[in-house]
Automatic annotation (TrEMBL):
UniProt cross-references to Pfam families, sorted A to Z: DUF1428
Protein name: DUF1428 domain-containing protein
Family matches, as InterPro entries: Dimeric_a/b-barrel, DUF1428
Amino acid sequence: MTYVDGFVVAVPKANVERYKEMATLAGSIWMELGALSYVEALADDVPYGELTSFPRAVQLKDDEVTVFSWITYDSKAKRDEVMAKVMEDERLKPYMNDMPFDGKRMIFGGFETIVER
């Protein structure tokens, strides 16, 4: 079964195009370095829940949109290998120093797949 990294971020609407540029580059790098898939998805039908929701989780502001992303790998070991290389990749440095979203509100984690079709 594959291993999955998942991310949820709040992106200012004014930065969506810059975020897409960053995500396109990041996706190419992740795939080049060994990820199986890389997906970035802009919220389209994501209600603000009474108790929990994606918007609540990232403390979404009126001028922001939620982005849900995931990357798949052959295994956790492969994820660790790819992630180490990605963090050292110079092509992403300009975005790391000036991210088009608030990294403090990013939710992320690694997940072991239990069902896969």
